[in-house]
Amino acid sequence: MPDHRSDQAGLQPEPAPARAARPLRVSVDLNRCQAYAQCCYAAPDHFVLHGREALYYDPAPDAAARLEIERARIACPVQAIHVEDAGSHGR
After folding, report:
1. Nearest CA to 25 among 53, 77, 65, 54?
2. Domain that includes residue 49, residue range
3. Cβ proximity of 46 and 57 under 8 Å
4. 52 inside domain
5. Backbone phi and psi for residue 53, each to the nearest 5 degrees, phi listed first
6. Based on the structure, what is the number of domains in the chain?
7. What is the C-alpha to C-alpha distance for residues 23 and 31, in angstroms, rounded to an integer?
8. Global pTM?
9. How far apart are CA 45 and CA 61, in angstroms?
10. CATH code, 25
11. pLDDT tens-digit profile of 26-64?
12. Please, what's the b/e burial string for 16-48 (b: 16 or more CB within 10 A of its CB; e: otherwise)?
C-alpha cells in the first residue's frame, strides 16, 4: 500500500523562525556582579572588565553570538547576566 503522506506536500505547517536568528538583548545586574570575569573568558568579544570592577558589555549582540553569550550567562557564578530575544517583553 503506498504511503500518501509524501503526496500531501504543503500541508505541514512551516517551522517557526529559528531562535538563533533573532537578535539578542543582554543586561547585566551590576549590583549583583562581583567582577569574577567568567563572562569575559566565555565571550571575550562581548564582555570586557576594565580595571577591577568596571564591566563593559554589548547590550545588543548579533544573533550569531548567541552561543557565546549563553556560555557567558551560564558561567556567571552569581547569575548576573540576563539574555532574551530583542522582540520579547520581560522574559
Report:
1. 65
2. 20-85
3. yes
4. yes
5. -140, -5
6. 1
7. 25
8. 0.71
9. 10
10. 3.30.70.20
11. 999 999 999 999 999 999 999 999 988 799 999 999 999
12. eeeeeeeebbbebeeeebebebbbbebbeebbe
